[in-house]
Amino acid sequence: MLAYPPAMHLVEGDRGTVSAAQFTASGGYLMYLNATPKQSSETLGNWPEFRIEHLKKESAVKARLIAASRGVRFLGGTGTCVIDAYVTKIKSNHYTELACFVRGPTTSSVIIAAALTANWASASSVLMRAVAAYQVQ
Questions:
Q1: What is the CATH number for 69?
Q2: Residues 6 or more apart from 128 whose CB is under 8 A from it?
Q3: How many domains does the chain have?
Q4: Distance (Å, whole) CA 63 – CA 12
Q5: Is residue 69 included in any domain, yes or no?
Q6: Contact yes or no for 48/80 (Cβ under 8 A)
Q7: 19-58, pLDDT tens digit by residue?
Q8: With helix as H, strand as E and coil as C, how does 84-114 read?
Q9: Burial class (CB in 10 A: 0-12, 13-18, 19+), 6
């Protein structure tokens, strides 16, 4: 279950995912939330390395780990979380994100909360509250 602030709106995403976003005046992402079921070999143990490599393979020209935390409590589960920064392949946008791999009793999933790096200081508290409210099954 994904909770998102009123300034964000549901947006289309990949099948099986749920996403919400707030856009800039030019139509780019200002803030973005996404919940995705486990899709690959990510685990609580390998999440920090997995996330950085995944970003580099999929959408980033460069990505760096800022911080990682294990044993994070979620509603219905436990997670490993990272804060990272990356530059997108398209348009060279700079984003900072909180990305967590969360294991519940029956499923594992990923929740991503990202914002333009220039807006991270103001957006992070709203995004972190949304992540803290994430419920896994």
A1: 3.40.1000.10
A2: 98, 113
A3: 1
A4: 25
A5: yes
A6: yes
A7: 999 999 999 999 999 999 999 999 999 999 999 999 999 9
A8: EEEEECCCCCEEEEEEEEEECCCCEEEEEEE
A9: exposed
